Amino acid sequence: MHWRAIIRLFGLLLMLYSLSFLPSLAVALVYQDGQWSVFLESLAATLSAGLLLWLPNSHRESELSVRDGFLIVALFWALLGVFGALPFILGLHLSLTDAVFESISGFTTTGATVIAGLDRLPPSILYHRQQIQWLGGMGVIVLAVAVLPLLGVGGMQLYRAEASGVAKHEKPTPRIGETARVLWSLYFGLTAACALAFWLAGMTLFDAVGHAFATVATGGFSTHDASLGHYDSPLIEAIAIVFMLAGAVNFAIHFVAWRDLDVRAYLNDPETRVFGLTILGGSLFIAASLYWAQAYADVGSSLRHGTFQVVSIMTSTGFGTATFGDWPLHIPLVLVILSFTGGCGGSTAGGLKVLRVMLLVKLGVRQLFQFAHPRAVLEVKIGRRVIKEDVLLSVWGFYVLYIATCLLLTVAMMAAGLDLESAFGAVFTTVNLCGPGLGEVAVTFATVDPVVKWLGVFGMLAGRLEIFTLLILFMPAFWRQ
Amino acid sequence: MHWRAIIRLFGLLLMLYSLSFLPSLAVALVYQDGQWSVFLESLAATLSAGLLLWLPNSHRESELSVRDGFLIVALFWALLGVFGALPFILGLHLSLTDAVFESISGFTTTGATVIAGLDRLPPSILYHRQQIQWLGGMGVIVLAVAVLPLLGVGGMQLYRAEASGVAKHEKPTPRIGETARVLWSLYFGLTAACALAFWLAGMTLFDAVGHAFATVATGGFSTHDASLGHYDSPLIEAIAIVFMLAGAVNFAIHFVAWRDLDVRAYLNDPETRVFGLTILGGSLFIAASLYWAQAYADVGSSLRHGTFQVVSIMTSTGFGTATFGDWPLHIPLVLVILSFTGGCGGSTAGGLKVLRVMLLVKLGVRQLFQFAHPRAVLEVKIGRRVIKEDVLLSVWGFYVLYIATCLLLTVAMMAAGLDLESAFGAVFTTVNLCGPGLGEVAVTFATVDPVVKWLGVFGMLAGRLEIFTLLILFMPAFWRQ
Ligand SMILES: [K+]
Ligand SMILES: [K+]
Q1: pLDDT at A162
Q2: Rounded distance, CA A417 to CA A7, Å?
Q3: CA of A475 relative to ligand 1 center, distance in Å
C-alpha cells in the first residue's frame, strides 16, 4: 500500500468536496432558513480535515497500484458518507447513526431515509440531501464505466470495449480522466434536461432541480414525504420514467448515441434491449394484475401505476406514487425480483445488473440443452459475442457472494429484532440500492434498532461497490504483500 | 423414443408395484380395521393396469436410450404417485387432488400432508402411507447413486467414482442391477436396525416399523399428528437423529464403510465431513440462540430441541418435536437455509446437496482470491480432486434452474392466494422435500386451494428429479429426433 499517497489523495478529495457545501450555503442564504452557519461549519470542518491529510503528504505523490485502487474506491464512499453527514448532525441534530445512514443512503444513491416530515425541513438541508445523491451518481458512473471493467469485477470485463470507446483516442493505458469528463458532461446534460422538464410540468424550480438530481442518479430522495405522489401528475411521472430509465442505461451507450446522434445505439446493445423488454413486459404484467384484482377501476390507472412502479423499482430509484397495501400479494414479489435484476451495467442503477442476469439465464438454458444433447458444443452468446467460460465463472462468483451477503444480512437483521418480511425488505432495498422496503421499513428506517441501521449501511456500501470491492478488504490475502 | 418398450416396462413395474398392497392388506386383516377391500381393490386395479400395458407389448423388449431413461425416471414417480393414491381415495374418500398430493408427497419422501387426525386413521392406511415413503426412498437411492451420476445432472458426474465402486467388478457398462441389489441390502439393514431401536426405546412394533420407514427414507410421515413430539422421549429423538443422518449420507459411502468395516470411510469423504460439521455448527448455533432468547430454561433442552430440528430439516426429513412459534425470529430463516443446503448426494435427502453448496462457496471464495491476485492460477478442489470448469458450470446451471423454479412457483402460489410467507414456505418445503412449511402450510396443506396443491406436486417432483430430469421433458429439443 502507498499509504501516504492515498492519504494525500483523500486530502485533496475532501478539500474538493468541501466546495460542495457552497451551493447549500447559497440556498440557506436565499431562503433565509437559518442554516447558513451549518454549512459554513461543515465546509470549514471538511476543508480542515482535507488540509490536515494533505499537508504532511503533499510531496508523496506516487504511482498507485491496483490494490491501492480498491482501498481508494471503498474509502471514497465511506469517507464522503461521514463528511456528508455533518449538516444532518449540526442542522437537524440527528444521532451519528442516523446522520451517517442518511448520508450513505444518499451517496450510494439508495434513497432509504430515517427522516420523517420532509415537507417541514429547511430548504438548504433538503437541497444538501438531494445534491448528495447527484454527487454519488457522478462517482458511480466513473466507477462503473471506467474502473470496474478494468478490474474485471464479476463479469464487468465484458464492458471493456464500451469503456475504452468513450475516451476518443484509444491508448494502451485507459485515460480515466478524459472518460470521466465525457461522462460527466452527459450526466450534467441529462440532469439539466430533467430539471427543465420537471419545471415546465409545474414543479417549483427548487423541487425541479432537487428531483432531477435524484432521478438521473436513480437515487429516489424526494423533498416531500409523499415522494412523487405529492404532485399526483401523470406528466411529472412520465418525465420521471424517461429520466429514471436514462439513469439506468449504460452511460457508454448514451455516449455513442449522442456522438452519432443515432438512437439505434440503444437498440443495438443487447443489454439495453433486454432491459427495455423486461420493463415493458413487467409493466404490462403488473398493470394486468392490478386491473384483474380491481385495485384500480380503469385500464389507464392500472397502466400508469404499474409502469411507474416497475420503472421506479427496476431502475433502483425507489420513487413512490402509491402504497402496495391494497395490491395483490404476488406483485411485491415480482417487484423484488425486478429489483434484484436491476439496471444496466455502467449506469447509476443497483442490483445484479441486466447483463449478469442474462448470463445466468442463458447458462441455465444452455445446461438444459447440453443435458439433452450431451455431445453438442454449445456457446453462451451475448449478441454476437461468445462469452468465455472464465467470464461465466466470474459472474457466478459474483452471484454467490451477492446471495450470501443478502442471506447473512437478513439473518443478522432478524437477530437484531426485525421480523422476516421487514428484514428481507431492508436487505433487498439496501443491497439493491432501491430505497423503499417491506414491512416495518416499507417507508422509513427511522424506527428500527441502530444495529439494523449499521447493517443497512454495510448493505448499501456492499451493493454500491459490487460486493467484491468491499469484501476484498476483509481478506487477509489482500493485505499481505 | 422406444414407446412400446417403455410401456412394456411400466406394465411390469405396475404389476410388481401391485404386490406392495399385500403388506397393507395383511395389516388390515390383523388389525381388523375394515379396510381389506380397499387394498384388494387397489391391488386388482394396479395389477390390471399393469397387465393392460404389458400384454400388447410383451415382445417389444429393446435397448433403451438415454432419452428413454429420462422419460422412465420422470414417469416412474408420477405413475406410482397416481396408483399409490388409490387407497386414499377408496379408503379415506379424499378428492383426487388430495390423494395424489399425499401419495406424491410420500413417494418423493417429502412428507407434507393434507390429512389431519392421523391418530384416528385405520392402521392399514397409516401403514400404506409409511410404506410409500420407504419405497420412494428405495427408488431414489438407485436414482441418485447409479443413474444421475451417469447422466451428469448438475455436477452429479462427480459421484461417478463412488457409483462404480459399489458394483464389485468394475466394467465399462455400469451394472445398475447389481448396484441396486447392494444398495437395497444396506437400506433394508438400516431400516431393520432403526425399527428395532425404536421398538426397544418404547414404541409399539407398528409405530416402530412405520417410523423406521419414514426415518431412513428421510420422509417424515408419522402415524401421529404430533409427529415424534407424541413420545416426548429424548431416547427416541436420539435414535431418529442417528438414522435421519444415515439416510442423508451417500449410500455409496455407507457401502465402503460396511465393506471395509471402517468408519473412516465417512471421515475421508469431503462431502460427508462438511455435512457433519454443518450439522454440528448449526445445532450449536440454534441451541445457543434458543438458550439466549430463553425459549427453553436450561442448556439441555435447548441442545435437545436445537439439534433435533437442525437434523430433521437439513436431512429434509421434517419430523417435528416442537413448534417454532415461540422461537426467536432468525431461527426459521437459518433452518430454511439449511433446508436448501440439504443432505449429501447419493442419499434419500433433498435440497441442493452439500457437495453442490460446497462448490458454490468454494467458487465464490476463489473468485474473490482471483480478484486479489489476477495472475494466480487457482483451482477449485474437493478433497484432493481438482474440479473442472465444465463441472462447475454444470452445477451453476443446476443452481440457476433451482432458484428460478422456486421463484416462479412462489409467484404462482401467491397468485393462487397464499401470502408471501406461506407461499415461500410451501415452495421451499416441497422443492427441498422437507415437509413442514411456514405460515398457512406450517403443519398441513389441507386448507389451501387445489391449485396450490398441484403446484406443490410439481415442486416435489422437480425437487426429487433434481429439476433437470423434469424440466428436460418440457423442452422441444428433447422430443425432436
Ligand atoms: K435508489
Ligand atoms: K421429507
Answers
A1: 67
A2: 38
A3: 29
